[in-house]
Amino acid sequence: MPLQIYNTLARAKQTFTPATPGYVGIYVCGPTVYSDPHLGHARGPIVYDVLRRWLRYQGYKVRFVSNITDVGHLTDDADEGEDKIQRRAKLERLEPMEVAEKYMWSYFDEMQALNVLRPDITPRAAGHIPEQIELTETLLQRGHAYVANGSVYFRVRSWPEFGKLSNRDIEEQEAGARVEVREEKEDPRDFALWKRADPEHIMRWNSPWGVGFPGWHIECSAMSLKYLGDGFDIHAGGVDLQFPHHEAEIAQAEAAGHPFARYWMHHYHVLLNGQKMAKSTGNLVSLAELRARYEPMYIRFYLLNSHYRSVLDFTDEGLEAAKNGYLRLLNAYREVHRLVHTAPGGKHPGLEHAVEEVHRAFAEALDDDLNTPQAIAALFNFVTELNKALTERPGRESLQKAEKVFAELGEGVLGLFPARVLQNQLGGALLEGLVRLLLDIREEARRNRNFALSDRIRDRLTELGVVVEDTREGPKWKVDV
Questions:
Q1: According to the model, what pLDDT value does residue 279 have?
Q2: Is the separation of the CB atoms in 160 and 178 below 8 Å?
């Protein structure tokens, strides 16, 4: 089945067909960098990371662009208020660009810990002021914008299609909803392309209309077109950006004569105590706080266990359950990795069938609008069949295929088993050898009825995150950290 994406623009699932065969261009709205990221900031990057990985697994060449907003949004996300980066700069007594630099790298560090691949291009808004000015000038020339008191506004009524993404009728939009009413505007629904800078505003640039700074929406239109071209494939972001941000992006680009994104994907919120996580309200759990308590892959696994178009209400219990599920997959991977090098040649019919089935079910899940919970369920079903096969000592050829399932689908697509985890938790020959040596000493102590030493070895391994299980075939161990 070809990839089906729920296209917000069409309000339906559609078969994904790239504009250029074999190539896919993706633009994802990135963060405004003025504070440390929280759990809600991780959902989108992880979801679209899987999308990118899945497309590449299928053989597409992908250009993935995600911006950094280092100019600063106004505090009310409209045309009034204080610049968020400037406000933080005052609090921390830093230059605004120091704030942007500090929190940009904080964001990158958290995404790296979550095994999110770095974008192919990460354009910064402050580095693309000329492109934003040029796009604004085009809109002025075409009559879709006007200058008022040193600011430039998009004339919403000049573009009848405004509202097509969010399915809003501009005649029904209330004046002042999301966009502050200003006397200098022709219409309260018009939004800023360029803002005149007040004397106290620190972040400012020269323009044909005087000293100022870009409006909220113009950067993404300018940068996505610059790096992906007209009519690029996929534009993605949070559902809260659908209106007005993405709606404005479309209007700006298309009114300037540029075909814009063909598919629009929107992920839903992560909630805490039933409310959206947000910096503005303080209702959040920071990623740094979570990483102090949990392995980052538990967090990634937790977020992928719900569909990106469903609301996720964060709980500690949910994260604990995700931890247990992740460890089940990890330990199955470790057991296959341990056995594959010493197994005799040959194939196991049951395991061969399980490998074929997991590839089929996994692809069916992700092709159905990136259904990561179903893809994970396919891996769990595979582990069940794998464990049955392991009791019959399958041959090396089948074990190698089983190991590739974890490497290619579990890590390559879902990003769940990065090299750090494989090295620290899966264990190489040295770790395998050391644990096996300790277990051999423990078995000798048990035979000699030295139960104090046997228990001490088991308890010390448990403290280190290695759980020992005594079976008829001898002691086995698994990771539990």
A1: 75
A2: no
Distance CA 70, CA 104 (A): 8
pTM of the full predicted structure?
0.88
Mean pLDDT by 10 residues, the chain (481 residues): 95 98 98 93 98 98 96 58 81 89 96 98 96 98 97 96 91 51 84 92 93 94 98 97 96 98 97 84 89 95 98 95 96 90 90 98 98 98 96 94 98 95 66 78 89 88 81 75 50
| Residues 401, 402, 407, 408, CA torsion sign | positive
Distance CA 226, CA 232 (A): 11
Q: What's the per-residue H, E or C state across the chain?
A: CCCEEEECCCCEEEECCCCECCEEEEEECCCECCCCCEHHHHHHHHHHHHHHHHHHHCCCEEEEEECEECCCCECCCCCCCCEHHHHHHHHHCCCHHHHHHHHHHHHHHHHHHCCCCCCCECCEHHHHHHHHHHHHHHHHHCCCEEEECCEEEECHHHCCCCCCCCCCCHHHCCCCCCCCCCCCCCCCCCEEEEEECCCCCCCCECCCCCCEEECCCHHHHHHHHHHHCCCCCEEEEEHHHHHHHHHHHHHHHHHCCCCCCCEEEEECCEEECCEECECCCCECCEHHHHHHHCCHHHHHHHHHCCCCCCCEECCHHHHHHHHHHHHHHHHHHHHHHHHHCCCCCCCCHHHHHHHHHHHHHHHHHHHECCCHHHHHHHHHHHHHHHHHHHCCCCCHHHHHHHHHHHHHHHHHHCCCCCHHHHHHHHCCHHHHHHHHHHHHHHHHHHHCCCHHHHHHHHHHHHHCCEEEEEECCEEEEEECC
- Round to whole Å and give the CA distance between 110 and 291: 9
* Alpha carbon 127 to chain centroid, angstroms: 24
Separation CA 239–CA 269 (nearest Å): 7
Q: How far apart are CA 99 and CA 399, in angstroms?
A: 50
pLDDT (0 to 100) of residue 181 = 52
Nearest to 150 by CA among 204, 212, 219, 78: 212
Tokens representing 286 are 């920071």
Distance CA 128, CA 144 (A): 21
Residue 443: its pLDDT value, please? Answer: 86
Chain centre distance of CA 200:
36
